[in-house]
Amino acid sequence: MSINRRRFLTQAGLSAITATTAGSRLLDGGNAPAAAGNDRDPLGTDGPLDLETLADPAARLAPVPFHGPWQAGILTRPQPAACFASFDVFAGNRAELVDLLRSLTGVARFLTGGGTPENLGPTAPPSDSGTLGPIVPADGLTVTVSVGSTLFDGRYGLASRKPRHLKTMPSFPNDNLDPAQTGGDLLLQICAGSADTAIHALREIARQTSGVMQIRWRLDGFVAPARPSGVPRNHLAFKDGIANPNVNDPVVGNHLLWVTNGIGEPDWAVGGSYHVCRIIKMFIEFWDRVSLTEQQQMIGRYRDSGAPLDGQLESDIPDFRADPHGAVIPLNAHIRLANPRTSETDPSRIFRRGYNYDRGVDLNGNLDMGLIFNAFQQNLKRQFEATQRRLIGEPMVDYVSPVGGGYFFALPGVQTTQDWYARGLLED
Amino acid sequence: MLALTALSAVASAVATGSTAGGPRRPSPATDATASNHASVEPIAVGQGTCAPGWRAPSAGRYLFAIANHSSRWGAISLFQWGSGVVVERVALRPGGVTRLAAQLEAGGAYGWGCLLLGLPRSVSAEAQVPSPQGQFVPAVAPVSAAQIAGPLLRYRRYVDGLLALQQHELTTLHEQATAGDLAGAESAWLAAHLTWLKIGQDDGAYGAFGELGRRIDGTAAGLVGGTRSRDFTGFHKLEFDLWTRHDLRAAAGDTTRLLAMTRSLSPQAVAADLPLTLTSMANWLLRCHEILEDALRDSLSANDDYGSNSDLASLAADVAATREMLRLLAPFITARVPHLVATAERELSALIDAINGTGPDRGAGIASLSVSQRERVDAASDAALATLAPVSDEIQVANTS
Ligand code: HEM
Fold it and tell me: Does the CB of B378 have a partner CB in chain A at under 8 Å?
């Protein structure tokens, strides 16, 4: 096993270069402009058009219904692209806040359904930026609106209507929260079939609301394609999103996901859900220097298949009771601490809907990437905070660092064409 | 982070060797579908029997069906015969059949370790997988605990010496702070902090000193209230007192508290914190690269700077600590990877050159370096880390119990 890593790297590098050179020559040959029959100087001839490389450029996700008892973008299977944007609100009074949420509703309703933007005539700037073409495709767009505890301060007289557990996200041990990317009055989780659709939505929303709300922080995310199959991977290369409670079952949904009547929450909040969004940076260079065995022991699953260490398939359920001493799945493995799978801890299960992020380079030359940890639950304290507390000091903490995000409350759904975001909260 | 700390007594008793690190190849048991396996190989475990008559006729993926004929809970591990490195491990329930997928490599030699709770560990016969050339690849023998005990004891003496020096430097810091000499206090802080880093203990994330290590050298990150938190203590609190707040009274009080904390790290306490267990030895080996990993994460990102601009000096101290590790472990490393120590030494020298190239006294803040100065330091530390990272995987400490 005495691999000389440096030498190995050098050799691998060399052969990779050779391969690329050969490959690019091939490509050049294939793409060479057809000079035959064209007397023009080849240097002045255009190459072939750079068309989309996907097999089916017309492929778009189907529209996701906008109206419903709860918002889209929670139970919706994670679309490939996401844009998380947290805003601070500058509405001067409650009426202006109502206006803001009404217009936000209007934009989101239009964009999620798709269609032809209004024509304002030749002299006005176009009503839509046009980045999605003249007809806006729905492309599976969802715009999920959540409110932060700061919206319930003195400004709009909402203090008595705050969801019971909503507060500023505390700093947990091992957190390294940067105030510039933490908190905010309003969080938009914008998800779509492709990045341009999500960004287009953010751009339209921002330009129609920028007088009353400003972006405090923003982060784009993506869900990777299945590699090679099953649940997609995060930047640690592990499949992420395998184990989630079955919240589509109304009994489970009403116990773990949605705020319901009779649990001590304000009436307007029924159909909403506590939304925890944490920007968790990963030290992937450090991770990549760790043996696979150690990586798998930290997570408690096999990297390649996603199966728990005591199983064969990603869908296998770990049997911690058969392994009381952690001989197979260590007692401090991430999945074991996060969900011990006991009747006492089951009520603390959370519904995760995370995204990978990737944004440039750190001061120390490391790639700046990580996980937009994104979870919904009925009760912030009983679920997210209990889970997070169990994870304090887990072996994985050396390889990750939460740097931002916040606690929010996902508003109940917009039910009809007359309804608007937060109407129950803001109307007397 | 540590495979070993994660393992229970059962697991390490089952293994015939160390489990830290483990095999380098992609894990075998990741094959999702049973249909990819050539056949199902039955393995029997019982009171006093461990996989009798098992075979490994050829290289490839196997699916083993392990039948526990006893009425006891237990675990079984497949390990590489020579090194004792565990390839796969699975728990056994009384009277149950458990499936285990594993990849057997051509030329490898394997065995099973069986443990049924309450009974002594038993080991199967060795089975060798033929290689195409008909040769067997010898595995690297693990280091015995007795062999590694010597270097670890020398390391403790090194730590003891630095702790004594640090007590002295902290006393000076206290005197300067009480006398109202800010510049004197700052230089005493620098000396004491660099001594601490040479011990190879940064904020305690990877440290043997645990929570105490965090209170001695942790930052305010993660504390409610940040720098105002009462739990913000130790070197970085003092750095904040001196460079940011110019508050010598606070500094004197904080030094007294720091002295008390470091005094509890007396030689005896250090000995208790670094017992000669398999776990502590594997943890200790990890320092070969984790001291620098720490520096890359905290110092080179300027995340732990509270005004002293001493991140580059800290990095140089971390290099010194890493070099001490290399010096102590050189014979073991060289026996396994002949040129590693020399390469690492060369790269660490290049890192020191890059640090010195940033200007006088290593006193420039990370953020104020020019892009090329910073890139040079980052590249040099990445190169050294890539060389050092495999050390803890290469040196397996044998469990001889
Ligand atoms: C960067 C940070 C994190 C990474 C890389 C990570 C990664 C993973 C992976 C690979 C899995 C196994 C696959 C799966 O079941 O989806 C998992 C499961 C899980 N994680 Fe995380 N996670 C992170 C942070 C968190 C946090 C902050 C929490 C909650 C406080 C959390 C809660 C969970 C839960 C509840 C499960 C499912 C466990 C089960 O039901 O078996 N994770 N995570």
Answer: yes
Cα–Cα distance for residue pair A364/A360, rounded to 1 Å: 12
The pLDDT value recorded for residue B140 is 58
Name, in order, each residue with C-beta under 8 angstroms of A390's C-beta and a sequence gap of 6 or more: A337, A338, A340, A345
The mean pLDDT of B347-371, rounded to a whole number, is: 91
Q: CB–CB of A296/A230 below 8 Å?
A: no
Task: Compute the distance between CA of residue A113 and CA of residue A105 in angstroms, rounded to an integer.
Answer: 12
Give the Å distances, CA to CA, from B400 to A252, B18, B130, B143, B278: 50, 9, 28, 10, 10
Q: What is the C-alpha separation between A6 and B389, in angstroms, rounded?
A: 11
Cα distance between residue A92 and residue A4, in whole Å: 65
| Facing A364 at nearest CB: one of B221, B300, B394 | B300
Query: If you average pLDDT over residues A174-201, what whole number do you get?
Result: 95
* Helix H or strand E encompassing A108: helix A94-113
pTM value is 0.80
Whether the per-residue pLDDT at A133 is higher than 80: the answer is: yes
Contacts of B73 (CB under 8 A, 6+ apart): A322, A324, B91, B92, B93, B94, B116, B117
* DSSP type of residue A39: -
List the 98-117 stretch of B: residues with Cβ below 8 A of A.
Answer: 99, 101
Please state, in angstroms and rounded to a whole number, the distance separating the CA atoms of residues B147 and A376.
53
| Average pLDDT score over residue span A210-234 | 95
* Pairwise pLDDT comparison (A346 vs B141), residue with the higher score: A346
Which value does ipTM take for this structure?
0.76
Looking at residue A252, what is its pLDDT?
97
Tokens of B155: 């390391």
pLDDT value of position B268: 52
pLDDT above 90: residue A299? yes
Structure-token pair, residue B29: 């048991």
State which H helix or E strand residue B345 sits in.
helix B340-356
**Domains of chain B (ranges, CATH numbers):** 2-128 (2.60.40.420), 143-398 (1.20.1420.20)
Helix (H, G, I), strand (E, B) or coil at A218: strand
Residue of chain A whose Cα is closest to the Cα of B117 = A325
Q: Which residues line ligand 1 (CB under 6 A)?
A: A 234, 236, 238-243, 280, 282, 299, 301, 334-335, 338-339, 350, 370-371, 373, 384, 387-388, 391, 400
Per-residue pLDDT band at B141 (split at 50, 70, 90): low
Residues of chain A with Cβ-Cβ distance to B293 below 8 Å are: 286, 289
Q: Report how far apart, in Å, the C-alpha atoms of B23 and of each of A165, A302, A393, B167, B394 are.
A: 47, 14, 26, 43, 10
Q: What is the CA radius of gyration of chain B?
A: 25
The shortest CB-CB distance from A304 to any of B30, B289, B293 is to: B30
Structure tokens at B183: 């510049």
**In this complex, is the C-beta atom of B7 within 8 Å of any C-beta atom belonging to chain A?**
yes
Cα separation, B128 vs B140, whole angstroms: 16
Alpha-carbon distances, residue B172 vs A322, B161, B257, B401 (angstroms):
57, 17, 14, 47
Residue A158 has pLDDT above 60, yes or no: yes
DSSP codes joined into one string, A163-210: -TT--PPPPPTT----GGGB--SEEEEEEESSHHHHHHHHHHHHHHHT
The model's pLDDT over B222-236, given as tens digits with 9 standing for 90+, comes to 777 888 989 899 999
d(Cα B74, Cα A325) in Å, to the nearest integer?
10
Answer yes or no: are the C-beta atoms of B202 and B300 closer than 8 Å: no
CA quadruple A156, A160, A163, A166: dihedral, nearest 10: 70
Burial of A399 (C-beta count, 10 Å sphere; 0-12/13-18/19+) = buried
Distance set, CA B40 to CA A251, B43, B64, B98, B223 (Å): 41, 10, 6, 12, 54
Alpha carbon nearest to ligand 1 atom 3, residue: A371
